């Protein structure tokens, strides 16, 4: 039976949820904001590329800070830099389109500082017996943020005629970031131990028989899909409807479905049924893209979004739990948790860059709805390969 979460795990969940709310309020609409100013698929792609690459580099460099010094300060730095990013977009207004690469780099740095520290603290406050429960709750709260925040943002932007609405939601995000920084001071300062090994991940991948030689491509497969889906789905909904309010409603409906799914699967999933659950999720998140081949409308996008929200938890909860179980499989690997978390992020970044590169090759040349659908399908089925690479790890946990 899964163990309950202690107070520190609950507080970390709250900080993560507030960070998610602030990003959901504004982050959903940043690609739309840049699109309205530029009408350029290429610009959106390079903004996102800057974000992904800088996030990965920040993970690697900040790993030393997190391991040898104060990891909570890295967490706070990430939240503060996220606030600086939205403040900068706010001040630049429509001129943000001229600074899309620096803005992407700034947002990537913010994400890197936050998530390297968050993942280390998450590892420390959970264990294999309650990790699925934590991930279920994290998905639940993330979905709740996705229900309310983008819907409110869409209504405000539409009712306040665009620019004023964007200024208001970016400002609200700044306030929520400030609250999450304050709450983070109640998280215990965690002792630093050991020295950081810069090339630890590379050595793991070079070693024959090392389990990370299979885990790394599984993580990269997850990243290939994320690299495109994290921004293109919302942008496609906006381009199909030309209405921020409808994008907000799309997010509300799909996040509500995800909330129920994360809640149900988080309670039902255990070490014995991870393999079947993950295969079901990997296959179905590819199949639900098929309605878009018929026609890309708000209705078919909603069918696709609901299907993705329903089945993604089957894939992502066992994926995340098993990676962290591998990090904690021995005292030695647990001591090297920062380096392993950097290695995990390197896999995600590599996958995201591969997925985004396919976007940058295809869409600037052909941005028809057919091309977008084929691109979504091509990267959307890659998680099946991720499941295949994960199979040995899932078997180890089977009854």
From TrEMBL:
Q: Topologically, how does it sit relative to the membrane?
A: Multi-pass membrane protein
Query: Which GO terms of the cellular component aspect does the record hold?
Result: plasma membrane
**Where do transmembrane segments lie in this chain?**
40-62, 74-93, 99-122, 134-153, 165-187, 223-241, 247-265, 277-294, 300-320, 341-365, 371-390
Tell me the InterPro entries matching this sequence.
MFS (IPR011701), MFS_trans_sf (IPR036259), Sugar_transport-like (IPR052528)
A molecular-function term among this protein's GO annotations: transmembrane transporter activity
- SUPFAM superfamilies referenced in this protein's UniProt entry, alphabetically: MFS general substrate transporter
Annotated localization: Cell membrane
Q: Which UniProt keywords apply?
A: Membrane, Transmembrane, Transmembrane helix
* Protein name, entry field: YQGE family putative transporter
Record the organism.
Answer: Paenibacillus endophyticus
